[in-house]
From TrEMBL:
Subcellular location: Cytoplasm
Swiss-Prot/TrEMBL GO biological process terms: methionine biosynthetic process
Protein's name according to its UniProt entry: HTH-type transcriptional regulator MetR
SUPFAM superfamilies: Periplasmic binding protein-like II, Winged helix' DNA-binding domain
GO MF, one annotated term: DNA-binding transcription factor activity
InterPro entries named among the record's database cross-references: LysR_HTH_N, LysR_subst-bd, MetR_PBP2, WH-like_DNA-bd_sf, WH_DNA-bd_sf
Keywords: Activator, Amino-acid biosynthesis, Cytoplasm, DNA-binding, Methionine biosynthesis, Repressor, Transcription, Transcription regulation
GO cellular component: cytoplasm
Boundaries of every HTH lysR-type domain copy: 1-59
Family: Belongs to the LysR transcriptional regulatory family.
Location, primary (coarse class): cytoplasm
Superkingdom classification of source: Bacteria
Length: 293
């Protein structure tokens, strides 16, 4: 029978690279760990690892068990955390993943009233630019995902919370400042400043440049919204951001919004959760406050 300890040791050996290191993490002796592996292989009737010198390489059966461990163990660990929180009379931490990088300022407006309404709940935000939101939501690394690009898959649900327009941001002295809209060809000599994400995930490429068969002269990446807008204000390039965010900065920086194309580029922000968490009071409360913000 495959037990939790079997999945844990396979995961840790894969992470640490050796039985010795895995044994330390699992608080086992190396001999006890080796005995557990040998007993598992006898029960399964197939080896889990093969040795290549001092290195261990997973067999096909071992790779399957590793994939199983990466699916099952995070869910068990999540359940244990919840049980400990219930036992202590706490509701725990709401873990939020951000795939909408300029939405951080909006999120702050949601978190403040939420914390006031739910004093037993803490909030943690993950905002990494290579962040795999769907995988993290499926894997119980986060509880809620903020994204403009939902993927409606079994087990997940996405609720729209607000609409916005994606606009071009230019410096006040840029030739396009004051224009009603910009066409793709207008930016052929410009430097486009974006967040460091894949081009395939940038709306200005998918909905503006690519349909017209155009591209900017150069693309630069910057992680921080403030620095990005300072670069735009100083004439170092242009950017594409939500209109509501540009309007906030326009009062204190020399930047201006310009519509992307005659019709504009419009998007929605969604909050993604797991279907199994439906009805969780403090999670549903966050979604409702977000829709009102």
């Amino acid at each position: 029978m495959i037990e939790r300890i079997h999945l844990s040791l396979i995961r840790e050996v894969d992470r640490r690279g050796s039985l010795t290191a895995a044994a330390d993490v699992l608080c086992l002796t190396q001999s006890a760990l080796s005995h557990t592996v040998k007993k598992l292989e006898q029960q399964l009737g197939t080896p889990v690892w093969t040795r290549e010198g001092r290195a261990l390489r997973l067999t096909q059966a071992g790779r399957y068990l590793l994939a199983l461990a990466e699916r099952v163990l995070p869910q068990l660990e999540h359940a244990e955390r919840l049980m400990h929180e219930y036992a202590r009379g706490e509701r725990g931490t709401l873990r939020i993943g951000m795939e909408c990088h300029p939405c951080y300022q909006w999120l702050l407006k949601v978190v403040d009233p939420y914390l006031a309404a739910w004093p037993e709940v803490d909030v943690d935000v993950k905002q990494r630019f290579q962040f795999g939101g769907l995988k993290a939501l499926h894997g119980y690394e986060i509880d809620l995902l903020v994204t403009p690009d939902p993927l409606f898959k079994p087990g997940l649900r996405f609720v729209p919370v607000f609409d916005y327009e994606q606009v071009l941001v230019v410096g006040s002295s840029h030739p396009l400042a004051g224009r009603s809209h910009a066409e793709p060809a207008d930016l052929s000599d410009d430097v486009l400043i974006t967040y460091p994400v894949d081009v395939e995930r940038l709306d200005i490429y998918n909905q503006f440049f690519l349909p017209a068969g155009c591209a900017p002269r150069q693309r630069k990446t910057i992680e921080t919204t403030d620095i990005m807008l300072q670069m735009v204000a100083s004439g170092r390039g242009v950017a594409a951001l939500p209109r509501w965010l540009v309007d906030e900065y326009a009062g204190r920086m020399a930047v201006a919004p310009v519509r992307l194309g005659h019709e504009g580029v419009f998007k929605q922000i969604f909050l993604g959760t797991r279907e199994v968490d439906a009805g969780t009071a403090y999670l549903e409360a966050f979604v409702e406050i977000a829709r009102q913000a």
